[in-house]
Amino acid sequence: MRTNRSIVLFFLTFLLMLPVHAAVKEKVLHSFGEDNNGAYPISSIVSDSQGNLFGTTNLAGANGIGTIFELMPAAGGGWTFALLHSFTLDEGGNPRTGLIRDQAGNLYGTTDDGGVLTFGTAFELSPKGSGWDFNLIYNFAGGADAAFPSGSLISDGRGSFFGTTGGGGGSGNCTFGCGTVFQLRNNGNGQWTEQVLYGFQGGSDGADPIGPLVADRGGNLYGVTELGGTSQCQGGCGTIFRLHREANGAWRKHTVLQFSDKQHGWFPNGGLAFDSSGNLYGTASLGGDLTCNPPNGCGLVFKINSRGEETVVHNFSNSNGDGMFPETGLSTGPGGHLLGTTAEGGHSIPNCEFGCGTVFDITPTGKVVVVYSFGLDDGVMPLAPVYWDGVGHVFGTTFEGGTGFAGTVFELTP
Fold first, then answer.
1. Which of 5-19, 54-68, 164-178 is most confident?
2. Most buried among 10, 225, 239, 319, by the most CB within 10 A?
3. CB atoms < 10 A from the CB of 294, how many?
4. Do 175 and 317 reside in the same domain of the chain?
């Protein structure tokens, strides 16, 4: 086990980095090709107590619709790749979300589509002997039910998972429904029950909730809708919402914020994060500085205080290599730091005209600093939140790039 000195070094590195990409070391742990091992990961990484890493790929595998994989630290350095599962169409396909792990070592996740009803699935992967057992725990049904899971599950620690879908939810002015927040409950007998906690209505109510939820200390759930809210943006500029459980067990939805115009953010992404003062931070993939990518902007970082008031923390423009288009949310790092990625921007290279993407840090003072800029061989277009292991190492995935040109799993160390 690494000592607390690693954490201190990591924290100090973040404070001292101005061109941080020179101070942080990046290592590609695996490069995907378009083969049976999977390709084009969009999901975040999760680890177990032995330091093994788990994730999903969106495409390829034995049936072309995605895989579940493991990376294990090898003696003397390096990593060993293991394919744990290739999805079949009935099991679901094209997983976009990261996995979560329970105390027994079981892995849980969702697929964006596929399943018996073609609206996506939820699944469990359980260790059994030297292998793994795949168990389909829910087929989303669309209509009044949820459809097309869009964010990683979160656990309440009592046998329930919560998540979001981009479709379903019944009434509303969206073709396949405007999206839901749902709960999956383990009944304790190997059976799972699903319940839609809220179905979005579109318009001012919000539509297309995307990304994982985050819970506060009181168990309230927070998330974002990519669309809906005010009409100053095409389709709406997006919203931030809260779900509160009332005394009778019912859930009530409250709109915390409607993004007012493009300058304040458009297409907010999931993965909100709390700071130590209870403020919410997040990203929007468009909006902000409208001179970048005119007239839609290159995205921004925002902060929401306890009164629901928004402050724009940073506008991405790539004028100084800070990145463009943060397509995912934020992860909590050491010492109050928050970590995120941009899909493009950073250092320009011939094969990435505007840069291949970045990892950035939001310091406790609200300053945004680039941690790493990707090149072609080490990854292109990070589309998932990064994962900090708690002892000074950051792991993540890129959708493209690497020696196999179909994405990478990477590690950043001070």
1. 54-68
2. 225
3. 9
4. yes
Cα–Cα distance for residue pair 355/350, rounded to 1 Å: 9
Phi (first) and psi of residue 136, to 5 degrees? -80, 120
In the chain, the largest separation of any two C-alpha atoms, in whole Å, equals 59
pLDDT-derived band of residue 8, with 50, 70 and 90 as boundaries?
very low
**In this structure, are 211 and 250 located in the same domain?**
yes
Is 34 within the bounds of a domain? Answer: no
- Which tokens go with 181? 């927040």
Nearest C-alpha neighbor of 137 from the set 91, 69, 95: 91
Q: Which residue matches tokens 């304790």?
A: 188
135: tokens are 């168990």
Q: Where are the beta strands (DSSP E) in 173-332?
A: 180-186, 192-199, 207-209, 214-215, 221-227, 239-245, 251-258, 266-274, 280-286, 300-304, 310-315, 331-332
Query: What is the per-residue pLDDT across 256-276, written as a single tens digit (0 to 9) for each?
Result: 999 999 999 999 988 899 998
Nearest residue to 152 via CA among 252, 258, 223:
223
pLDDT tens-digit readout, 220-266 = 999 999 999 999 999 999 999 999 999 998 999 999 999 999 999 99
Does residue 199 sit in the same domain as residue 323?
yes
CB 148 within 8 A of CB 166: yes
Which range marks the domain in which residue 270 is found? 145-330
The Cα–Cα gap between 63 and 60 comes to 7
User: How far apart, in whole angstroms, are the C-alpha atoms of residue 242 and residue 258?
Assistant: 12
